[in-house]
Q: What sequence folds into this?
């Protein structure tokens, strides 16, 4: 008798089909079409903020600001942040985006929930793949001010950019967004130009960019844009405070803004799905500084990558070399 036939190899999962199933189930396909055409989209609160997420995020951001500065931000008048200078102020002026809070992923479970929001993850995955990681999670608190934020893009590389996204910005609007409130502004279609604006193109007033659009969004909306889309922000002329929470996501080979490897508590890793560990950079191998560091980091990263690969049904890929060494 001949040897028993080997079992047929399982067909690899199709990541593209998988993300389209997710987008369709979450009713996101119209927003993907908008994103593809214009480089940005606004997903309304009833879709973007399940389980009352946005009001809880707003309270948590205000709590963090109060803990770090000793002063509770004044939502109604914006007096605590009017003409805010801080370290991001321009010479002779105020900060174009007010106060910036960094590293919110460490500040409580509601921020973990914000990262694991299926709507945010589906849009980030559409742009940057199932291996996408968190680059930074912060918050802007902007009161009445004088200084516009100039046009720029979030892909910090020399041109030309590739046509596919390397970066995804998913920003929770936690208070109303419009031009008077100092909203984010976009140049529609600019993600297709595959470059950042030059200095002479960066101003958003006057004749430079008549097509600039100021976003209008209700509290709880999620504003998602391609990392090459030109965007800016108008100064806030209305009283009150604009609070937003950008969740910047990148492909795993991009340098992240926040360095999270080895810094996420075991409790946070245990209470979240396997993908959470990969999102918060625990699957990133590069960054070692010695033979021992490379060995330790690779083993730890592979453990999380394997768990995510298995939990995802195989829509992620595993480097065959790492599988050989550590599998």
A:
């Amino acid at each position: 008798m001949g040897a028993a036939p080997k079992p047929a190899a399982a067909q690899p999962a199709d990541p593209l089909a998988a993300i389209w199933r997710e987008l369709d189930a979450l009713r996101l396909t119209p927003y993907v079409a908008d994103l593809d055409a214009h480089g940005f989209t606004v997903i309304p609160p009833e879709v973007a903020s399940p389980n009352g997420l946005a009001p809880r995020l707003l309270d948590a951001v205000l709590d963090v600001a109060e803990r770090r500065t000793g002063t509770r931000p004044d939502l109604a008048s914006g007096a605590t942040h009017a003409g805010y200078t801080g370290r991001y102020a321009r010479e002779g002026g105020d900060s174009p985006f007010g106060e910036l809070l960094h590293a919110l992923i460490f500040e409580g479970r509601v921020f973990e929930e914000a990262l694991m929001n299926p709507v945010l993850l589906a849009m980030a995955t559409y742009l940057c793949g199932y291996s996408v990681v968190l680059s930074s999670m912060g918050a802007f608190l902007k009161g009445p001010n004088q200084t516009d934020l100039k046009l720029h893009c979030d892909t910090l590389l020399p041109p030309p950019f590739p046509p596919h996204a390397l970066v995804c910005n998913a920003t929770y609007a936690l208070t109303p967004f419009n031009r008077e409130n100092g909203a984010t502004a976009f140049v529609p279609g600019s993600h297709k130009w595959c470059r950042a604006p030059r200095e002479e193109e960066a101003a958003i007033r006057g004749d430079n960019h008549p097509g600039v659009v100021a976003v209008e969004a209700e509290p709880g909306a999620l504003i998602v844009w391609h990392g090459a889309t030109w965007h800016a922000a108008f100064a806030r002329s209305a009283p009150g405070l604009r609070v937003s929470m950008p969740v910047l996501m990148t492909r795993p080979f991009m340098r992240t803004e926040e360095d999270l490897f080895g810094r996420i508590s075991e409790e946070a890793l245990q209470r979240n799905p396997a993908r959470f560990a990969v999102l918060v950079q625990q699957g990133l191998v590069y960054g070692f500084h010695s033979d021992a560091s490379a060995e330790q980091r690779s083993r730890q990263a592979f453990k999380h990558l394997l768990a995510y690969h298995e939990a995802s049904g195989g829509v992620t890929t595993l480097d065959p070399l790492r599988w050989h060494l550590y599998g």
